[in-house]
Amino acid sequence: MNFQQILNRVVYPLVGVGLVAAAYRVYGWGGVALVVSVLVMWLLLHLTRTMQVLKRAANRPIGYVDSAVMLNAKLKPGVSLLHVVAMTRALGELCSPKDSQPELFRWTDGSQSHVTCEFLEGKLVKWVLFRPEQAAQPEPGPTP
After folding, report:
1. Which of 1, 4, 55, 72 could potentially form a cystine with 129 if both were Cys, beta carbons 3.0 to 4.6 Å apart?
2. Domain count of the chain?
3. How high is the pLDDT of residue 38?
4. Helix, strand or coil, per DSSP, at residue 90
5. In sequence order, what E strands does 1-144 have?
6. Confidence band, pLDDT 50/70/90 cuts, at residue 138
7. Mean pLDDT, the chain, as a whole number?
8. Are 90 and 62 in contact (CB under 8 A)?
9. Is the residue at 76 inside a domain?
10. Is residue 112, in this structure, part of any structural domain at all?
């Protein structure tokens, strides 16, 4: 397990239990009610954000992005898949076998340029921008 997994699975729940215990010790049941209310509110904020991102993505075609070049410029290593879906406002087209690590997702724009992103345990590791060759345009001749 890496450090982030240890935080998510062990440390954060222990901090929550510790806060509840400290609130009970200092303020009694009123403190417990306050801390539990704050923790539930924090969880609801994250759930609301996730649902809003998925609602926006549901109205777009899978694997579509307005501009692959702009997406390529905005990506940073370590961002979550949810953050990338929020940026593109579309679910990525899955390019790797289902439920395997690393996961590969692709977003394509109208000019057939695409960005292929590799996620390891939900975090962006690397990405590649592909731009198709532009057809050579003829030189404008002299005008009579």
Report:
1. 72
2. 2
3. 95
4. coil
5. 93-94, 103-108, 114-120, 123-130
6. low
7. 90
8. yes
9. yes
10. yes
Give me the numbers of helices (H) and strands (E) for the chain, helices first please.
Answer: 5, 4
Distance CA 19, CA 23 (A): 6
Tokens found for residue 120: 């390891």
Average pLDDT over residues 78-92: 94
- Claim to verify: residue 43 and residue 84 sit in the same structural domain: no
Could you check whether the bond before residue 142 is cis, i.e. omega within 30 degrees of 0?
Answer: no
- Domain-located, residue 139: no
Domain match, 73 and 41 both: no
From the CB of residue 120, how many other CB atoms can be counted at a distance below 10 Å?
12
Q: pLDDT band at 3, cuts 50/70/90?
A: confident
Nearest to 101 by CA among 122, 81, 78: 122
Q: What is the mean pLDDT of residues 69-91?
A: 94
Residues 79, 49: one domain? Answer: no
Distance, CA of 1 to CA of 12 (rounded, Å)? 15
Tens digits of residue pLDDT in 45-62: 999 999 999 999 998 999
**What's the whole-model pTM score?**
0.77
Q: How far is CA 93 from the centre of its chain?
A: 14
Are 143 and 129 in contact by the 8 Å Cβ rule? The answer is no
Indicate which CATH number applies to the domain containing 90. Answer: 3.30.1450.10
